[in-house]
Design a protein that fits this description.
about 160 residues, mainly alpha, disordered N terminus
Length: about 160
């Protein structure tokens, strides 16, 4: 009796695994995965507006690069120049300057690399768009390969 149960369980497991693989090899599954990935990327790329001054200060401190550090924000650094810049950013926010204007002031003083976020133009856009395009293209090629392989298996 236990042999029948084990054999039944094994065949049910094989059937379930086969069903899962069939779904994963379908074009609809890959389209659904691509849509979910694009929606997740879209949602993740939207930054809500910062409401209060303390939230704005925290945001600006996190995107302004410490001038004397390597790839640290002024929020992460205890260097004297970072501490001074944090104080200036807080003063600018409290005086009513917009985030864009504060970013312009920092870039004017420390150069184009003063921000840890891409500017959205020129080479910065390429540095963000090329990897995303390559990953997307690789996913499309993989989906096409699996779809063709499945078509060949079905036609045999």
């Amino acid at each position: 009796m236990s042999t029948y149960t084990e054999t039944g369980t094994r065949s049910e497991t094989r059937l379930a695994v086969g069903s899962i693989l069939a779904v994963l090899e379908s074009r609809a599954a890959w389209v659904a995965v691509a849509i979910v990935a694009l929606v997740a990327l879209g949602i993740g790329s939207v930054h809500p507006t910062q409401a209060g001054p303390s939230a704005r200060i925290a945001y600006l401190d996190s995107i302004i690069k410490c001038p004397s550090c390597v790839d640290l924000s002024i929020a992460q650094s205890d260097a004297p120049v970072a501490v001074g810049l944090r104080t200036e950013v807080a003063t600018w926010v409290r005086s009513g300057l917009s985030n864009g204007r504060i970013e312009q002031l920092v870039v004017a003083r420390f150069g184009e690399d003063a921000l840890l976020v891409p500017s959205g133009s020129g080479v910065d856009t390429l540095l963000w768009a090329v990897p995303v395009s390559l990953v997307g293209g690789a996913c499309l090629l993989l989906a096409h390969y699996l779809w063709r392989r499945r078509r060949l298996e079905v036609s045999r």
